[in-house]
Amino acid sequence: MPGSGKSLFSSVAREMGLPVYVMGDVVREEARRRGLEPTPSNLNMVARLLRKEEGPAAVALRVAGRLERGSSPVVVVDGVRSLVEVEVFQRLGRVITVAVHASPRTRFERLRRRGRPGDPGSWEEFRERDMTELSFSLGSVIALADYMLVNEGPVEEFLKAARGLLERLLAEAPREPPGG
Amino acid sequence: MPGSGKSLFSSVAREMGLPVYVMGDVVREEARRRGLEPTPSNLNMVARLLRKEEGPAAVALRVAGRLERGSSPVVVVDGVRSLVEVEVFQRLGRVITVAVHASPRTRFERLRRRGRPGDPGSWEEFRERDMTELSFSLGSVIALADYMLVNEGPVEEFLKAARGLLERLLAEAPREPPGG
User: How far apart are CA B133 and CA B151, in angstroms?
Assistant: First the structure.
């Protein structure tokens, strides 16, 4: 959910040298291609259009097409929104879903502090954006997550938990034969 | 989600002397009234029928009608399934939502070990039951939880976390004037 801290998780993965693919980047590129500013409402519209024009897995399929599978035993995909998208990646290999949770109150306060253009100015705007996110069945992906990281406390604690989980996944990942 | 351990949370609340209302009890009563065995598939059908006949908040409204609000500063409602149901309770007072999470793998193994009649015998049956649960928008309630308790480790750890949270909520709850 917005403001939960999932991009922090990705930043830890990047620091560890893991490839990170951001679902939203595909949407941002498509918005640029269509001559639209990357505001949250435009990005949301483009994400909807893509899914309408090319099917519910459109964004995931574009990311999947770019994944360099041999490059690393663990690859991070940031921002999966629906079970249909999860299934796209399951066709490529073993998928571990990680959800990052923070309470609505905490996420709202973070987004207010962050104050990026397009971040919600009021609780009502925030709730509306949450509902848009959930309309893609994001809630089901969260409910079925293999790992749930709670990000309510100090940021250092969350970074440590993220690093710990990624190290564990790396240790457990099968080593594919070169070129395999 | 089934097997996450939410009824353990309720049992901690009961031990602490807090009133606990179980949404499923209303459904079980209604099944009995209709002469049906309380199998998961029958209970699911009755829950669906109730929501179809009396609206999506039917079960919550029946529970809300029984809540004795003055009885305790904190009252636990076990088994809310949708945001519409959460809204019913918000009309009665301040609502704190608590989600209990365990990974699908952990929940499946627990349900297998528990082996109650109606518990899933295969991974496919388990996934199907998960999907039925999620069809009520349970995922959105989980995604928007005020507190997320992860129940992957030893049961004692979870019971301690549950007790800690309930004690905190009790400490924070406003004391209503007698009869208020």
Answer: 19
User: Rounded to the nearest 5 degrees, what angle is found at the Cα of A74, between the Cα atoms of A61 and B108?
Assistant: 85
Tens place of pLDDT for every residue, chain B, 180 residues? 999 999 999 999 999 999 999 999 999 999 999 999 998 789 889 998 999 999 999 999 999 999 976 779 999 999 999 999 999 999 999 999 999 999 999 999 999 988 777 788 899 999 999 998 898 789 999 999 999 999 999 999 999 999 999 999 999 987 664 444
Contacts of B113 (CB under 8 A, 6+ apart): none
**Which residue numbers of B have CB closer than 8 Å to A's CBs?**
1, 101, 103-105, 130, 134, 137-148, 150
Cβ-contact A143, B139 below 8 angstroms:
yes
Torsion angle (degrees, nearest 10) of CA B147, B150, B156, B157? -80
Residues of A at the B interface, defined by Cβ within 8 angstroms: 1, 101, 103-105, 130, 134, 137-148, 150
Contact B134 A150 (CB under 8 A): no
Of A118, A70, A115, residue with least CA distance to A92: A70
Structure-token match 């305790």, residue found? B72
CATH H-level, domain A6-171: superfamily: P-loop containing nucleotide triphosphate hydrolases (3.40.50.300)
Distance from CA of A33 to the nearest CA of B (A): 32
CB atoms within 10 A of CB B128: 12
Residue A67 burial (CB < 10 Å; 0-12/13-18/19+)? middle
Best CA proximity match to A148, nearest among A78, A99, A96: A99
Pick from A180, A172, A108: nearest CA to A146? A172
How far A42 CA lies from chain B's nearest CA (Å)?
23
Judge if ipTM > 0.95: no
Q: Is B140 in contact with A139 (Cβ distance < 8 A)?
A: yes
- 0.90 exceeded by the pTM? yes
Cβ–Cβ under 8 Å, residues A143 and B134: yes
Subunit contact B134:A140, Cβ cutoff 8 A: yes
